[in-house]
Amino acid sequence: MHVSTGRRARLVDALGLEPNIVAVSAAMFLMGLGENLWRRFLPKYLEALGAPVTAIGLFGTTEDFLDGVYQYPGGWVADRFGRRQALLVFVAPAIAGYALFFAAPTWPWVFAGLVFAMAWTSMASPTLFAVVGDALPKNRRTMGFTVQSVLRRVPIAIAPTLGGLAIASYGLRSGVRLGLVISVVLAIVTLVVVARVRVPVVADDTATNVRGVWRSLTAPLRWLLVSDVFIRTCEGMVDVFLVLYAINVVGISAPQFGALVAVQMVTSILSYFPAARLADRTGRKPFVIATFIAFSLFPFAVVLSTSFAWLAAAFVVGGLRELGEPARKALIVDLAQPSLRARSIGLYYFVRSVAIAPAAFVGGLLWQLAPALPFHVAAGIGLVGTATFALTVDERHAA
Fold it and tell me: Residue 103 half-sphere exposure, CB side, CA atoms within 13 Å?
């Protein structure tokens, strides 16, 4: 009995399973499980409600826009009122958004629902980051983010298939609405889970506005942001075209492309834990450089592929893009001022989201010239970002 208890304690310690981390990770899992039952099918749901193609495109743009502008307000609420209160506040409008999706008689109602539903998807993000920084010491934060990353991706792997089965059984509208009902139930359970979060608020001695938060960002954190913008521009320029290149240019089938996505996801999950253990012991920077290199090489690997087997190897490289992601998130938390932690994270992601917004559109223009061109340009941009990070960011300045 004592041996079993000891093993459990060692496992809990190794994975950074502090009670607050368990609570927010469970919340992420529950909300993600519900949302992924229907999120991938929202464009078809809009179509079924009579939306034209231009409106469906505008829906995606609106989603990206809200993802950016909600980040900083979400961080402000978390720093001002505390992590638990913030998470409770963010779940409640998400439930209202799901209800609007469910009841939508016409497609504009789905846009209204999105305004509320994104409260969890985007506003809660800085809070989920900040809890890891608040609850864990510096040498365990990468593992804390690793647990979050895995629990975020498990629902992505399983829920869309379940949602697809519901649509096949009950039809598009009824299947999506069944998923929305399940989302509401899981969100209510999430309210109970996040009520268990107990993180004391770190007092901010002076009132700080957005300009003050920006000035508080250390030089290494600003350089990390600059390099991250390059890397995410590299990603955004080609990711939407991966399926087109694989099917239209290389000539694989849609099911084969689905298998490639699975290869990428499994590679990511398998890389998380060993990388996290090493990063917490030896430092974040080498692992962030490794993940940035993978971001840069992935477009090259795709355009060099001439068969399914070569694409599979390329998507292994794509999976390795997640190798240092928990370390990068931990480094952001390390470099942020504790009393401004959630706001700093929110501002970081707001700036990043706005900066990379044109990437996919530019990729489309380059695709019209030659399908391989956006991949080559993206790889070059990624290498610039990798070099920027390697030459400028010194994690010794992290608190």
Answer: 9
